[in-house]
Design brief:
six-stranded antiparallel β-sheet, alpha+beta, three-stranded mixed β-sheet, 17 helices
Length: 587
Amino acid sequence: MWISTNRLGTNAPGGNGPRTRAPRTSGRRADGPWKSGRGTSRHGRFAPGRRTAGRLVAALGVTAVALAGPVPTALAEPAPVPATLTPAAIDRFVNSYLTETGLPGAVVAVTRGGKVVHTGGYGRTAGGTAMTGRTPVPVASLSKSMTALAVMQLVDEGRVELDRPVRGYLPEFTMADERAAQITVRQLLDQTSGMADSAFPDLTLPQAHTLKGAVARMRGARLAAEPGTRWSYHNPNYFVAARLVEVVTGEPFADRLRGHVFAPLRMTDSRSVDATTDMPEDARGYVRAYGRVVERGHPRWFTAGGHGVVTTADDLARWLIAQNNGGVGADGRRVVSARSVATMHTPPGGENYAMGWSLGEQHDRSGGSEGGKGGEKESPPLQHTGELLTQNAIQLLLPDRRIGIAVVSNTGMISGDDSAGIADGLRDLAEGRPAEIREPFTMTADHVLAALTLLALGLGTLGAARARGWARRAAGRPLWRAGLRTLPYALPVGCLVWLADLVGLLMRREGTFAQVVYVWPALVVCVAAAALASAAVIASRGGHLARAVLRGQRPAGDGPAVSGDGADTARGGPVPVVVDRGVGAGQ
């Protein structure tokens, strides 16, 4: 399905200009408010995305047929910076990406060691404002790494122990499950607490207004697993962690983050908000459909602690520097211990998710991908994605090179994979390869869905047109057979009714139908078209069959049909058999 186009962009001398190719087929770990379970690719997957997308497209095809490891220290000596990772090369690539994909706007930050390589804004916001390095943007679940750092500062101060039960610091944290008393601070941060969408579907419920309220509304929830036994991405883990920070410090979480994380790093334009309605332009952005972008507003979501930070490209650069320098900012000020940074970057055994960071795909030092020819493997990158319905973001660390990359773009989850695509191209530049433009997978998948949509409508029209003949034939058989033959047409209708549940099952997250409309508009249109076509066939067949029955053309048991035209004898005897011997045959 993902056929490479190999469209070459205008290359600068030395072959460092962007190249365009179709998106990769592998999924990536989704780390936004509504994310999937596992998946591996260049970005770890989350993934919602492409493996799940393939399953959904395959399922729609069937419907149409029916109608028809450890992290090294961040302070190690970095590898030389490739000549390609320059402000001019970054600008050229990102501008080419916007031109090729129609992305409305994005901001980018690139750092190396303790220095900023480049920050900038491209395009415009949904409100029409030109984007710059100081344009405030929501970073969604990139916020989790910042919440984790605020907790680890308390660990450094001896005020919190990672392996102590949360309830020891936060007595108000209770659930309708006695196992919740065992949940530790560490398990909140690495998301192995046992809480999950399957037991507490956060985004389908009325949203909280404060961290205290967010914790209180979990009192009736149960756990999906024994604490410490299973990883499950769940935003309330970080709501509880942020509330813990409030209670231990006696400060509102937003104030604590501003005073002890943002201010020391000189992230002066950064803040934490409680809801999407507090974000710039109310988090208004875009979704992709059939290769185009459509402007959409964002519903109100509670975000504090889990996905509520608003920041800028300039501030993200300062954040990346501290992450690559073991907790030391660009001005030499330490905000957290190097040991705590290593803890935040190191997943527990058998997992790839740490504390607001996850492991990505390794490359060899010659620039080839894992499994290809090359030399010694580089350390795996660390990253986290963040996705709202109308915005998406990614932060990426290359530990051996001490390079940090952050991208925020104003398209939504799944339908717009733009931040990850831009980060891929910047990583190409960082590792000495020509940058390739990887279009969001929906720009290809939506064309497939469009074809399936037209096919479903065509087959539905054909089925409705042939319903009269079908009913005439069915009237001569038992009615249960007619019902059984029509039953498969109810499948697309059921898919539409339960679409949110089906998507949630594949993504291992819970959402609403309205959220699915944001996440993948073309999918909803395709399923709705299939359901409409099926309903038309069912209604047409049912109407014609009912008329046939009313005319008396219903079966007599399992025997042959009776004409129902009055030819039966008054006593119900057999219809006389008339033999036509032809003209002049013994008249």
